[in-house]
Amino acid sequence: MRLELRGITKTFGSVAANSAIDLTVEPGEIHCLLGENGAGKSTLMNILYGLLSPDSGEIVVDGEVREFTSPGDAIRAGIGMVHQHFMLVPVFTVAENLVLGHEESRGGVLGWLDRRKARQDVVEVSARYGLPVDPDALVEDLPVGVQQRVEIIKALMRDAQVLILDEPTAVLTPQETEELFTVMRGLKAAGKSVVFITHKLREVRAVADRITVIRRGKVVGQADPKTGVRELASLMVGRDVRLVVEKEPREPGAVALSVRGLSVRDDRGQLAVDDVSFDLHAGEVLGIAGVQGNGQTELVEAITGLRPAQGSAELSGRQLIGASPRTVLRMGVGHIPEDRQHDGLVPDFSIAENLALDEADRAPFGNMLMLDLDAIAKNGADRLAEFDIRAESAQTPAAALSGGNQQKVVVARALQRDPALLVASQPTRGVDVGAMEFIHKRIIEQRDAGKPVLIVSTELDEITALSDRIAVMYRGKIVDIVPSDTSNEELGLLMAGGGAEDAAADEAAPVSDAVPVSDAVPSAAEPTETAETAEPAAAEPADTVPAPRAAESPVAEAEAEPVRDATPEEAPAEESSETADE
Amino acid sequence: MSDRLKLRSEESPQGAVVGDGRAKRILQAIVSANTVTVTVLAFVLSVVVGGILMILSDQTLLHEWGYVTSVPGDAFRDSWHKVADGYVAMFHGAIYDPKAPQALRPIENTVVNATPLVFAGLAVAVPFRAGLFNIGGQSQLIIGAVGATWVGFTFSLPMPLHVLLAIIVGMLCGAFVGGLTGLLKTRFGAHEVITSIMLNNIALGVLAWLISTKAFHDTHRQDAISKPVKDSALLPHIHGSSPEVNLSTLLAILAVAAVWWLLSRSTLGFRLRAVGSNPDAANTAGISVARTQVYAMLIAGALMGLVAVTQVSGTLSASHAMTNTLDNGIGFTGITVALLGRGKPVGVALAALLFGALNAGGRVMEAATQPTVPHDVVTVLQAVIVIFVAAPLLVKEIFRLRDVRRGGSGPAPSVAPAATVDSAVEPVT
Fold first, then answer.
1. How many other β-carbons are positioned within 10 Å of the β-carbon of residue B5?
2. What is the percentage of chain B residues whose pLDDT exceeds 70?
């Protein structure tokens, strides 16, 4: 199916989320939509999926103009979408989820579900496209990567010809990401097209046939996967960005945070953090790596007083466990919560008010009785300038900001107090390259000022770029603490529970599932080669694209990679796909 | 909706630019579906619905509408008179009556009717801003009244002290019930709506029992009524003769100012709003959600205690004693007032005034019209206003208003005000 978007324009109020966007997805191609957060990728895809209607422009399927007023229309036209947040019912089995909304029942309206038929369908589709799943498994028991696979199967069962994947790799381990790429290549071989939405440059280069870069609602250029990371980044952001975190080696100081035998239970009463101990030194960044849901959230919540725990965590001799969040904050802990929308910001409050949220009863923001509105406003204006928060004024409500700017508000609040310990969870989640660069710089400044910094991130690149040491968490335990120059492969293995406990790894990590995938789709056996065979047409850049440097030296390439303070020579070795590109 | 508007404006060239910049801005502000516009239009709609009800409630008119096709004049003329008379009478009763001996009397009526509603509205608005739904106004009012009445008939004190004591005890008793609801929620996770409903029932039972006991029952009377409070505990009147505007009105103004200060200037109010908007973020920032919500309910209960004092020691109660119907549904009317006032103190005051005016005017309308337009029309009017306010999308759809994004830089200038004003008039005519 050939899918064409012509002159799609969509405005919200005075903001043009999409202006005159043209996009063509050829049959059997992996088309990557690259852009910062808030660039308009999701709006465009929601228009394509019938969730929004465009102000002008048309959607053309195989030469025929179509109008989608609901996802149902889009699905009937052969468009499938896998959302960032899965639309699955956790307590249903895979088969039940897959027939949901399309149940075949026997005996009319009051009939019973034809479970056997549903199972057969699932097995058939999953075998055809090499997407192994157990139709009888409950979705809540499945790893995230497999849940995503269920979503893909769901779209395929509705005969999707074009599959939209919205930031699919955000929740995956490096291994799971590789598997997903294999699946994508398999779909391509089966003649389906994939629209892959992301802001991760390396992934784009690994899997895309064609890249369309969107910035501020406009298509700013097309590129082929051979384009250098730095060029893609500057195309995406609109200016030159440095992707390396500049970091001088430093001798860590004395132990600042000492965690001993910490055990934390999650909301369901399960042991989420299991007897964890580690030390964090002054002037050191300790990165906690791990796939989402391996206890990192609970660990941070325990240290910041948000969740009861057993064991001990002492900050310069003072016990954090058992203290209220307020006491912990008063001890000087700066906390960047992992989910800014959920735990970081009060949406109705202005930027200035949000910046004063944790200290409203203390000077300079106020006292026990009343607020000092002038001081709050002044602080707001100051931070707005200091942290480059893009907003009309500090009185703008937080809800009106883009994700990256919201994150800057949260970061500014944690840092403005000059914290004695900085705990940063996913400090750059969903943040664009420009903001990421800035936030990383500020975090390293803390470290250089001799403060202890604890970083939790599921982005391996972020962890390796920032950390002095990396602790890998798996199933509530710290599997190992390794130096920051450990390779991504090794870290990936540790994140899947490998290393010390190989046996445990097999049952949890869906690595074993990957084997039949490549069997079923032989053409995808050489992934990097497939990515190489980009259509020649795609190489033609739009006029806004800065002219690609003819001879891209490997050195420049490596420098652009967001890997720690690595010397250029060793960087390419890390990523097999990366080296293959060059 | 916006598409439709844009089309209209493109079709009508005369609507391109109307008036100078300021006039245009004002028009745009009206056209854009902000809360004030929606509230005003909801009122307009409810007046239309009320008019239809007046016509439907009149047998003669219904008969005339029966032959409307042959003699249309009768039905339209008489209906117009009917509705106009009704609303004019209401206006006379609530705002100003040129023929009345005391020109300020209707306004006084309105204010006296509005006063308890101000407290009650605030008592719902404050918890609402903290993310709680205070449906328990009834129980807070009743227990507050028990305290205030007991103080009123038990002690013998000089006037200012006695009044002050009654007010304080009434507020404390109300706050106790409110705080209990808050505590049950934050400590034990009982949903405040459920516990409030139960507490309402308990309070009604306690009231019925108390006024039958020796301690409370007025032995001079046969019916279920408590002893009246002593004159020294009555709220002193500050204006007019009867019904007087008394101290409670002054207290209501103070309460509006205090709640405004609380919500927009105080540290507690800051926490309260943070908790109401995003409890998780508030908690992460070290604000105790439980404590804040209990405070909000304490304040709400104290405000309902003020309603209790107004009811018992104020002007509206001729007997100055507790009866089974003491609460008069004010606890629930407070919910609608708070909703209409959008949870803002000044909004609540205005909404209370509107409801007060409708109540005062309704009574006059009932007496002045022939055949009678029942006072129930007022209740329907109030309900219709609230329904329309609660369904802003419906109002916007009826009047073809454009939605304006929050924090946006105002509506795009391409839309012609003239075109939209046309459409806004349509349903009314």
1. 20
2. 83
Whole-number Cα distances in Å, B368 to A420, B60, B376, B386: 75, 18, 15, 26
Between strands A309-315 and A318-319, the pairing is: antiparallel
* CATH code 3.90.550 for B107-369: no
**Between A236 and A273, residue with greater pLDDT:** A273
Give the residue, A505 or B76, on which the prediction is more confident: B76
pLDDT confidence band for A110 (50 / 70 / 90): low
Shortest CA gap A62–chain B (Å): 28
Q: What digits encode the pLDDT tens for the residues B99-116? A: 777 777 888 889 989 999
Residue pairs between chains A and B whose CB atoms are closer than 8 Å = 97
Average of per-residue pLDDT across A419-423: 95
Tokens of A70: 């609901």
Q: Are A548 and A541 in contact (CB under 8 A)?
A: yes
A342 and B280: CB-CB below 8 Å? yes
Residue pLDDT, tens place only, B336-389: 899 888 889 999 999 999 999 998 888 888 888 777 777 788 888 888 887 887
DSSP-derived 3-state class of residue A451: coil
Q: Which fold has domain A255-332+419-508?
A: Rossmann fold (3.40.50)
Q: Domain A3-237 classified CATH 3.40.50.300?
A: yes
Q: Is B290 on the interface with A (CB under 8 A)?
A: no
From chain A, the residues in CB contact with B10 under 8 A are: none
Contacts of A198 (CB under 8 A, 6+ apart): A32, A33, A34, A167, A168, A169, A204
Write down the pLDDT at residue A140: 84
Judge whether B272 and A353 are in contact, CB under 8 Å: no
- Average of pLDDT values for A289-314? 91
Residue B386, CB half-sphere, CA atoms under 13 Å: how many?
Answer: 20
Of A172, A142, A168, which is closest to residue A155 (Cα–Cα)? Answer: A168
Cα–Cα distance for residue pair A160/A49, rounded to 1 Å? 12
Q: Pick from A225, A226, A243: which is nearest to A234 by CA?
A: A243
Whether A506 and A325 have beta carbons less than 8 Å apart is answered as no
> In 3-state terms, what secondary structure has residue A219?
strand
Tokens, residue A186: 């398999």
Q: Any idea where the domains of chain B sit in the sequence?
A: 2-99+389-425, 107-369
Closest CA to A427 of A264, A296, A575: A296
Sort out which chain A residues have CB atoms less than 8 A from B404's CB and list them. 13
- Residues A315-325 have a mean pLDDT of 93
- The pair phi, psi for residue B355, each rounded to 5°, is -65, -40
Average of per-residue pLDDT across A218-229: 85
**In this predicted structure, what is the pLDDT of residue B342?**
84
pLDDT bin (cut points 50, 70, 90) of residue A111 is low
Residue A566, pLDDT > 70, answer no
> What phi and psi, each to the nearest 5 degrees, are found at residue A30?
-100, 110
pTM: 0.73
State how far the Cα of B363 lies from the Cα of B109, in Å rounded to an integer. Answer: 10
Pairing of strands A255-265, A271-281: antiparallel
**Among A357, A416, A423, which would you mutate to test the B interface (most chain B Cβ atoms within 10 Å of its Cβ)?**
A357
List, by residue range, all CATH 3.40.50.300 domains of chain A: 3-237, 255-332+419-508
CB atoms within 10 A of CB A525: 12
Residues 411-450 of A with CB under 8 A from B: 413
Q: Is B402 on the interface with A (CB under 8 A)?
A: no
Average pLDDT over residues A535-558: 39
Tell me whether residue B318 is exposed, middle or buried, using C-beta atoms within 10 angstroms of its C-beta: 0 to 12, 13 to 18, 19 or more.
exposed
ipTM: 0.78
As given in the structure block, the two tokens for residue B114 are 């509005």
Q: How far is B282 from chain A (nearest CA, A)?
A: 7
State how beta strands B245-246 and B237-239 pair: antiparallel
